[in-house]
Design brief:
This protein has about 350 residues and is of the alpha/beta class. It is about 35% helix and about 10% strand. The relative contact order is 0.14. The mean pLDDT is about 95.
Amino acid sequence: MSLPIIPLGDGLEVSALGFGGMALSDVYGTTDPDEGVRTLHAALDAGVTFIDTADVYGTPREGTSGPAGTNEELIARVLADRRDEVQLATKFGIAGSAADGITRGDRDYVRQACENSLRRLGVDTIDLYYMHRRQLDLPIAETVAAMAELVAEGKVRHLGLSEVTATELTEATTVHPIAAVQSEWSIWSRDIEANVVPRAAELGVGLVPYSPLGRGFLTGTITAERIAQTALSRSPRFSEHFDANQGVVEVVREVAGELDATAAQVALAWVYAQGAAFGVPTVPIPGTRSAQRVVENAGAVSLTLSDAQKARLDTAADLVRGGRNFSFSADDWISSGRE
């Protein structure tokens, strides 16, 4: 099976749907590494060849400090046999546990982080290397300059940025071409539409939306009991506003029923339609532990919303209660907190 190929920026071409590897680590519940490997193989078999990970995803090893890297090691098991099928993306910049919120973007750190990721992934080159979060007291140009050295040395093919503002993106592109911006973007998380998405379109930079299914909430399958057992419990959007936000889910379900599609497919189809409306290449990266869900999600690539259905989904954002920054209390952790 194959999916259409989408050109992001800087000549990078990827499958129309990506896979968010974070779901294969213990973030939204306990995971089985062997099942994760099977899911990744199923993704590649379904044509989902754009695989996204980060050095901070996974469980820190006992007696070690710094990013965990175990998610990269898991993905390496698949890359060992199928590297030539994959457009591989990983990230650096969150130093230590994600819960600490410590970021680094200095040259020495960037270079060492890249070497560590290459080793864990078992590859010679990373197709898309993201700055996961920026070090706010360091000019972004300095970090991007360090990343550009990795491109010149052949260790990285393309550069990306995650959760940057429009101004930060513009500054970064004066140093080196940027292939993609990764940020949360979905029916219920639309703050980047104010500045970031238009700027990306203007600069020829692609968008890679993470959590396009609202961390599972928009599928209508996530329960309050499950939320209570995961990191999602830290977010009022998922906890205290769980019942109120069912109104958003209901709109997605209604449209899914009209199209004989899954709620996940509808949520992804909206992201594609929104990207097209802004004129920006858009490749969402939903994550799942289920091989069956990967195949179902791939069906969204060919799903078309009517204008009326798109309009109803657009207005669903008005029903949302609670902000999207669930990982940290600091507003500046996401781009909208710095604009």
